[in-house]
């Protein structure tokens, strides 16, 4: 039988892992990458961008960082070098078509009437079908010239949640960027895409306002503060203070022990848990509270957050369970003390001729440049790639968690998987395990449950993932149930979910990528 063709869209960390595993099972991977290089988000960053996840958590399971990288949080270019050596080591480069953008995908042989009648995924529960294929509409990303259409047996979407489509806030009538005549408005995406000289010339000697308080916003504010000092302070406009951590060792205790061990997961409710585990999570809840307080008191004291009005009103558990864990750049509050960064809080803002207006103030924040570090709309990218209105509807999840079984498979979209949309504390590690799970499924190692069971499971997970995250639940995130989630993938693949030797190690030692290197 002819080997099956698998289209992998995107050559970031998810696409690379998908390529490696499909190759290892004898499929023919064809990777489409709109950019000219591998690495996805890491190819276009600020000059100061570094990992926020410690490198031992952000690595492929069977491919350690080189000894020459000694930093706990390597810089973006070190991440790129690491990804490049991974791609070279596993012979992935020759399978990637660069500067090739997939405009849309169309399922041939899928009719809406047929889909309605299915009880099993794709009608049969099988990964492939002889009469159903995906047709890809492909263009040259530099010229938009159409390239040949490609027909494949399976599609793995690795198009990235935090790239390409900016999230632009809604503004009142006449209060959008067009009202701002005195300067320029950019999204962090555009700023990150500039070469470093152009970017630093752009902010030099300018009054810059940065909107947001996540990683890009904090890094941007630091870049502006370093470039301009107190003479032209950078205003950092945010809506909600978050627990932005100074480091990953609150009071000397590794954060991974507090939140990435089986013991830590005993303290919280998990989807599909037994009555005993449910009860344990209630009985042990004081320890859960204590762990959160360890982090909160550390972050508060270390920087004297109260002085800056930056003590969040919500608990750390809410932030970590929503993957809202931006690391604070070194010397951030020194820049605030120096007057190089001005912190401003407002629930909403709008543009006027000279800059930005915020609630409760009559004068604008005068600006030459406003940079919106307001996140991305990966959800729209995911939805828009389908030509079928039915599949677009399936992928509409504005206000909820992404409806994917095991965070990979939509029960009603056949012969297709999505990797990299539900976040984790280490997106690389999670993407790798998912790619392994998908390729084991393609290889026939296990079968999917019925559509009904998958939908029930998805609803269960949605309830659980939003339980602790409160208003931030839109950021589908597995951070506090990562081992529980990995256990399920392992069990499906026939692996022993216990990844460490001995009861104590299994219970208390943090789990990371290297624990999942072999079955
Ligand atoms: C500034 C920044 C810092 C981050 N730091 C961390 C961190 O420290 N730890 C962590 O765990 N996560 C971090 N992340 C999250 C990061 O998104 C993931 O770690 C990971 O790199 C995502 O990889 P990906 O392959 O899923 O997606 P991406 O890296 O977004 O790659 C998607 C790729 O798909 C391509 N593509 C998209 N659409 C198409 C199409 N239609 N046709 C062809 N190609 C297409 C894109 O060009 C891109 O190369 C960070 C994100 C950002 C933006």
Description of the structure:
It contains 18 helices and 16 strands. The protein has 519 residues and is α/β, with parallel strands linked by helices. It folds into two domains: 261 residues, 3-Layer(bba) Sandwich (FAD/NAD(P)-binding domain); 109 residues, no CATH class. The strands form four sheets. It has a five-stranded parallel beta sheet with strand order 3-2-1-7-16, covered by helices on one side. Strands 8-15-9-10-11 form a five-stranded parallel beta sheet. It has a three-stranded antiparallel beta sheet with strand order 4-5-6, with no helix packed on it. The longest helix has 19 residues. The protein is globular, with a radius of gyration of 23 Å. The mean pLDDT is 95. The site of flavin-adenine dinucleotide (FAD) has 35 residues, from helix 1, strand 4, helix 6 and helix 15. GO terms for molecular function: flavin adenine dinucleotide binding; N,N-dimethylaniline monooxygenase activity; NADP binding. It comes from Cucurbita maxima (Pumpkin). This is Flavin-containing monooxygenase. It is an enzyme of class 1 (oxidoreductase).
């Amino acid at each position: 039988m002819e080997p099956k063709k698998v289209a992998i869209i995107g050559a970031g960390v998810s696409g690379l892992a998908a390529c490696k595993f499909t190759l290892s099972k004898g499929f023919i991977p064809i990777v489409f990458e709109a950019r000219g290089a591998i690495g996805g988000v890491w190819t276009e960053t600020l000059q100061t961008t570094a990992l926020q996840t410690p490198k031992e958590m952000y690595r492929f399971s069977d491919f350690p960082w080189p000894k020459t990288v000694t930093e706990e949080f390597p810089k973006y270019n070190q991440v790129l070098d690491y990804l490049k050596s991974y791609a070279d080591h596993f012979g992935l480069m020759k399978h990637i078509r660069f500067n090739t953008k997939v405009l849309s995908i169309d399922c041939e042989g899928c009719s809406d009437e047929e889909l309605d009648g299915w009880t099993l995924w794709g009608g049969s529960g099988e990964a492939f079908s002889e009469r159903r294929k995906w047709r890809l509409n492909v263009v040259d990303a530099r010229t938009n010239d159409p390239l040949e259409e490609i027909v494949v047996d399976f599609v793995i979407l690795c198009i990235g949640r935090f790239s390409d489509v900016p999230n632009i806030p809604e503004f009142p009538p006449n209060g959008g960027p067009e009202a701002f005549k005195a300067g320029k408005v950019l999204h962090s995406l555009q700023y990150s895409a500039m070469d470093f000289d152009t970017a630093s010339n752009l902010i030099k000697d300018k009054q810059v306002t940065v909107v947001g308080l996540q990683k890009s916003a904090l890094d941007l504010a630091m870049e502006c503060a370093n470039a301009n000092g107190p003479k032209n302070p950078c205003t950092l406009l945010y809506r909600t203070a978050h627990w932005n951590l100074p480091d990953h060792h609150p009071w000397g205790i590794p954060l991974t022990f507090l939140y990435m061990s089986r013991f830590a997961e005993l303290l919280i409710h998990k989807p599909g848990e037994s009555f005993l585990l449910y009860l344990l999570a209630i009985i042990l809840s004081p320890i859960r509270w204590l762990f959160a307080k360890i982090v909160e008191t550390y972050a508060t004291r270390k920087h004297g957050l109260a002085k800056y009005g930056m003590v969040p009103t919500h608990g750390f558990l809410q932030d970590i369970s929503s993957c809202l864990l931006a690391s604070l750049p070194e010397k951030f509050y020194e820049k605030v003390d120096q007057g190089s960064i001005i912190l401003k809080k407002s629930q909403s803002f709008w543009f006027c001729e000279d800059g930005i207006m915020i609630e409760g103030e009559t004068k604008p924040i005068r600006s030459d440049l406003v940079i919106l570090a307001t996140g991305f709309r990966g959800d729209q990218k995911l939805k828009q790639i389908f030509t079928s209105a039915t599949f677009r509807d399936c992928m509409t999840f504005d206000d909820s968690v992404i409806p994917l079984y095991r965070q990979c498979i939509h029960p009603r979209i056949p012969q297709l998987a999505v990797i990299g949309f539900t976040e984790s504390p280490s997106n690389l590690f999670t993407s790798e395990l998912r790619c392994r799970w998908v390729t084991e499924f393609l290889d026939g190692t296990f079968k999917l449950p019925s559509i009904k069971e998958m939908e029930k499971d998805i609803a269960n997970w949605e309830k659980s993932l939003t339980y602790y995250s409160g208003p931030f639940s839109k950021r589908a995130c597995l951070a506090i149930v990562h081992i529980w989630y990995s256990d399920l993938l392992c069990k499906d693949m026939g692996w022993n979910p216990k990844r460490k030797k001995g009861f104590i190690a299994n219970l208390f030692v943090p789990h990371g990528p290297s624990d999942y290197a072999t079955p």
